[in-house]
Amino acid sequence: MNWFQTEIRLPEHRRGVHDVTRHVVEGMPQLVRVRVGLLHVFICHTSASLTINENADPDVPRDLASSLDALAPEDFPYRHTCEGPDDMPAHVKAMLTGTSLSIPVAGGRLCLGTWQGIFLCEHRNRGGQRRLVLTLQGE
């Protein structure tokens, strides 16, 4: 059993849901050496999150972002407002969507479904670069 771990920085994204599958795969080149294993992806932030979802229709990420905005609107009477009106809704959205993913690996590839991709959910208007910790276990 082998373990590999690295940290990658994603480019800055505007608020929304963005396919980052390529960044994750390129950030863990050891994937190609793993016959069977598991990739854990963790985001080191409380105002952004990760999800696996459809990567075929560009309307899906737009609709997901709109749905999250409706669930946690900026005009809700939050008490935590010192970091701007988009901050507390970002925390709520991150709580709903999650900070980590576990993805099976087989034959040197992620076992994602035909229409699946790894998505960064950027919940801030200007969240900056986001850090991901990638941990690969396998043989």
Write the layout of secondary structure elements.
Layout: E1 2-10, E2 16-19, H1 21-27, E3 36-43, E4 48-54, H2 59-71, H3 87-97, E5 100-106, E6 109-110, E7 116-122, E8 130-138
Antiparallel strand pairs: 1-8, 2-7, 3-5, 3-8, 4-7, 5-6
Describe what is shown at a glance.
The chain has helices at residues 21-27, 59-71, 87-97; strands at residues 2-10, 16-19, 36-43, 48-54, 100-106, 109-110, 116-122, 130-138. The protein is α+β, with helices and mostly antiparallel strands. It has a single domain, classed as Sandwich (Jelly Rolls), CATH 2.60.120.
Describe the structure.
This protein is an alpha+beta fold and 139 residues long. It has a single domain (2-138), classed as Sandwich (Jelly Rolls). It has three helices and eight strands; from the N terminus they run ββαββααββββ. The chain has helices at 21-27, 59-71, 87-97; strands spanning 2-10, 16-19, 36-43, 48-54, 100-106, 109-110, 116-122, 130-138. The strands form two sheets. Strands 1-8-3-5-6 form a five-stranded antiparallel beta sheet, with helices on one face. β5 and β6 form a beta hairpin. The longest helix has 13 residues, at 59-71. The radius of gyration is 16 Å and the shape is elongated. It starts with a strand and ends with a strand. The model has no long low-confidence stretch (mean pLDDT 97).
